[in-house]
Recover the amino acids of this structure.
């Protein structure tokens, strides 16, 4: 379980997050949504240990995330802006990841590479943006993480690849209780896969809860309608 | 340390090290192998003595480049995010990158050393001038297994030091260009600030003495400059004890490098990744570096153009440097907002302090004269007074006379500084007895501190100085007076000229005998060198008997004793001047007397070349250069008689 309590982060004079609480249950698929600049990426970068929180705590299964190697080994992260070393190929990156993650699954790596139709010896820098995204997913999923954090994960992916990708992710959720946190503006896609959502509003989590319960409460509104309602409607009320 | 990342770093960046290894090889071992059958001892010696420019360049450049390479991921947000989200702690990331960087930086030097070991062991080199090795003292660096090992050790220390500073620069920098510049700057900044301090003192502080500035110490701030200068000197002159000096200094550099590295590690743990892409990721770093840029930039420009622009040079260049520094640090030309107020105020305060301390002497440096009761000894040197004879005084009355002289000079300080700035030096003015000279004072205080001053004065002030008169005219302060009595007539040799003392410094003791009887004519001056007439005096002086030589020395001594104070302050010769070199060998010279006489310069001077250990113990040679004028009547009569007897 991911638990965030009283989280705050500022960049100079600008406050990005303030007193944010969030809970992501183990085995759930959690959709993190918010308007542009609401602090989703800032929150995710703190969840993955990239940024140090100014205040508050972030724990995974009760252990603080920041600077803890054992916790980070259990977390897979696909950022919105990808990075691969130098002129590395997928194989070379896999070799690097293999040394980092004891849980590395070679069979999964080969299967996904074949399924996505990537050439493992090809330089990643020469691949298209969509192919690079697939490569990032292959690497992260082959590390067999317990927690998967995705920041705008499906940008640049075609519908076929998206379907395959969700198949792998949801398969892991079902088979080994993978916990997934997804930040995306593609609310229709999220609606189909998320069981929980959190909406960042005014630098904190304005709403958090199970999607079906929320939909029941709000007369089967779509996630997009719920989002607009949460951001504007309740204020108007 | 993370093995996977270590391996990846080596795999990614080994080509940089390979190129560096090639440059090391081409700069050193390859040169030797090219010469093979007629190898130069000097080439080989330069390699192991840290004088090879190719080696030195790589020792400095490679760690800077490698450090920037291994920490490159810190300078783009996507790489920063991915690397920090992988299963590393900040410590393990820093340590792994640091160690892999060190391995990549040092590997080329280690490889080069192995090649040199192999060349040495295979005996493929045939030196054409190997007698040079024999002239080196025991323990000196030579083309040997030990010499190569020492080179490797020193090179590793150099690289470690440079790399540690660069690693600190890397973790505070937010982009690659700033990382490279900061790495270089951190390696130079301390010496730069010290040099600026020296330049300010020399330019603005009346009485500032070079004696208080230790150039060796400046070189030892950084191992690269230290091992190039002090190291080889220590080895050449001191042999095995020089080796101890090297090892101790190497240990000190290693300790400093360790401290800097730990500091870099601690800073990395606090690194604000959200500021990736900024010039500096810590506000304090940008602030301090901005101030340093203003200080060094305005100092350099202001000091260089001080004669033309005076204070305005510092002010204008300071403002320009401040604006440029802020633009670099904030990465925008739009710097004029409220955020600029703090660094601007700091820069103004800093430059005000600098100007106050150096230009307006708010610390009272120029007027400071120690109390007699605080002085243990004082060393006084007056270049054009009493033949430049140096005084080491500890008698309170003598110290009081020196402090009186010092106060007399300080009383004229403002006037002297104005005059010196306005003065145009001409030979006519010198002839009119208005020349200037230097006076050096070096107080050793009872507290253990030193106070040194070097002041420029016109002769006329010195002639009016009661303090100086007391010192010069008190015979007991004057070692020169006993010179004749101490000299053994059998050991006195004289000649009129010796052509080039510079050559003698490279001549060994055996050859010295040949040079001192050189058949070189003495020159009689009548105003200008162009009108000089040559007189064959040297053979006549060389032919003098021991008694005649003693008589000549007695004449010199007698003339000296009767000379009035004013005449002991240099004035232009009224008519013909004899240049006379006298060599007096002392059999009983002790070290204290040697130290005193070794201070002779200018008109009456003592030259000792190389180290006294190169020669027979207690066999000292004194060279006295006397320009004799009407103040030397007995000496003139003796020399005139010598001339007449030859006509």
């Amino acid at each position: 379980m991911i638990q965030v309590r009283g989280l705050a982060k500022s960049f100079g004079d600008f406050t990005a997050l303030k007193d944010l609480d969030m809970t992501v249950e183990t085995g759930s698929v959690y959709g993190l949504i918010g308007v542009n600049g609401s602090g989703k990426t800032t929150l995710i970068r703190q969840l993955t240990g990239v940024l140090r929180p100014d205040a508050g705590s972030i724990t995974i299964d009760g252990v603080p995330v920041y600077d803890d190697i054992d916790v980070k080994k259990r977390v897979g992260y696909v950022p919105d802006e990808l990075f691969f070393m130098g002129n590395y190929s997928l194989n070379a990156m896999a070799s690097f990841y293999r040394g980092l993650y004891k849980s590395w699954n070679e069979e999964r790596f080969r299967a996904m590479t074949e399924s996505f139709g990537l050439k493992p010896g090809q330089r990643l820098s020469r691949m298209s943006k969509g192919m690079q995204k697939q490569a990032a997913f292959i690497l992260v999923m082959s590390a067999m993480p317990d927690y998967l954090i995705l920041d705008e994960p499906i940008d640049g992916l075609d519908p076929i690849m998206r379907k395959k990708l969700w198949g792998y992710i949801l398969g892991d959720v079902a088979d080994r209780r993978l916990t997934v946190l997804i930040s995306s503006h593609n609310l229709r896609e999220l609606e189909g896969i998320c069981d929980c959502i959190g909406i960042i509003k005014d630098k904190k989590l304005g709403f958090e809860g199970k999607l079906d319960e929320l939909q029941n409460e709000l007369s089967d509104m779509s996630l997009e309608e719920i989002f607009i309602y949460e951001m504007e409607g309740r204020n108007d009320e | 340390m993370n093995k996977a990342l270590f391996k990846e770093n080596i795999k990614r960046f080994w080509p940089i090290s390979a190129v560096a290894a090639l440059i090391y090889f081409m700069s050193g071992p390859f040169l030797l192998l090219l010469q093979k059958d007629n190898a130069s001892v000097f080439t080989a010696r330069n390699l192991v003595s840290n004088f090879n420019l190719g080696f030195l360049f790589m020792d400095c450049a490679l760690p800077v480049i490698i450090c920037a390479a291994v920490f490159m991921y810190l300078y783009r947000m996507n790489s920063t995010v991915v690397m920090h989200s992988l299963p590393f702690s900040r410590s393990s990331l820093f340590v792994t990158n640091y160690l892999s960087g060190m391995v990549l930086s040092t590997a080329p030097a280690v490889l080069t050393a192995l090649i040199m070991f192999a060349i040495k062991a295979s005996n493929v080199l045939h030196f054409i001038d190997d007698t040079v090795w024999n002239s080196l003292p025991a323990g000196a660096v030579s083309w040997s297994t030990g010499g190569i090992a020492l080179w490797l050790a020193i090179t590793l220390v150099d690289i470690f030091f440079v790399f540690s500073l660069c690693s600190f620069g890397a973790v505070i920098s937010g982009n690659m260009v700033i990382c490279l510049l900061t790495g270089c700057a951190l390696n130079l900044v301390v010496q730069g600030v010290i040099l600026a301090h020296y330049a300010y003192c020399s330019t603005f502080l009346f009485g500032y003495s070079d004696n208080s500035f230790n150039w060796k110490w400046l070189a030892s701030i950084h191992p690269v400059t230290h091992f190039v200068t002090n190291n080889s000197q220590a080895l050449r002159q001191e042999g095995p004890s020089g080796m101890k000096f090297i090892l101790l200094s190497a240990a000190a550099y290693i300790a400093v490098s360790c401290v800097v590295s730990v500091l870099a590690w601690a800073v990395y743990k606090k690194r604000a990744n959200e500021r990736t892409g900024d010039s500096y990721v810590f506000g304090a770093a940008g602030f301090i570096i901005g101030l340093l840029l203003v200080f060094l930039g305005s100092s350099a420009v202001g000091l260089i153009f001080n004669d033309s622009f005076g204070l305005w040079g510092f002010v204008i260049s300071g403002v320009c440097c401040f604006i440029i520094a802020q633009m670099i640090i904030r990465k925008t030309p739009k710097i004029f907002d409220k955020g600029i107020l703090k660094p601007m105020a700091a820069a103004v305060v800093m430059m005000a302090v600098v100007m106050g301390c150096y230009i307006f002497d708010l610390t009272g440096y120029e007027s400071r004269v120690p109390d007699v009761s605080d002085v243990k000894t004082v060393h006084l040197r007056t270049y054009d007074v009493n033949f430049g004879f140096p005084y080491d005084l500890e008698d309170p009355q003598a110290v009081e006379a020196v402090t009186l002289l010092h106060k007399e000079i300080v009383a004229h300080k403002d006037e002297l500084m104005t005059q010196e700035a306005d003065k145009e030096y001409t030979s006519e003015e010198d002839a009119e007895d208005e020349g200037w000279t230097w006076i050096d004072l070096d107080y050793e205080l009872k507290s253990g501190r030193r106070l040194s001053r070097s002041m420029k004065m016109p002769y006329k002030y010195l002639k009016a100085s009661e303090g100086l008169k007391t010192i010069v005219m008190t015979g007991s302060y004057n070692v020169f007076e006993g010179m004749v009595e101490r000299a053994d007539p059998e050991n006195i040799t004289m000649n009129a000229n010796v052509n080039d003392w510079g050559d003698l410094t490279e001549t060994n003791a055996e050859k010295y005998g040949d040079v001192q009887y050189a058949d070189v004519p003495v020159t009689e001056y009548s105003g200008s060198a162009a009108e000089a007439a040559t007189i064959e005096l040297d053979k006549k002086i060389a032919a003098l008997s021991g008694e005649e030589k003693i008589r000549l020395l007695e004449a010199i001594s007698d003339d000296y004793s009767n000379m009035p104070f004013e005449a002991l302050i240099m004035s232009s010769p009224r008519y013909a001047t004899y240049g006379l070199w006298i060599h007096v060998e002392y059999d009983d010279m002790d070290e204290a007397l040697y130290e005193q006489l070794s201070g002779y310069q200018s008109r009456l001077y003592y030259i000792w070349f190389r180290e006294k250990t190169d020669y027979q113990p207690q066999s000292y040679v004194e060279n006295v250069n006397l320009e004799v004028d009407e103040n030397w009547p007995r000496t003139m009569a003796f020399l005139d008689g010598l001339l007449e007897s030859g006509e």
Remarks:
- The longest strand of chain A covers residues 14-24.
- The mean pLDDT of chain A is 87.
- The CA atoms of residues 145 and 228 of chain A lie 33 Å apart.
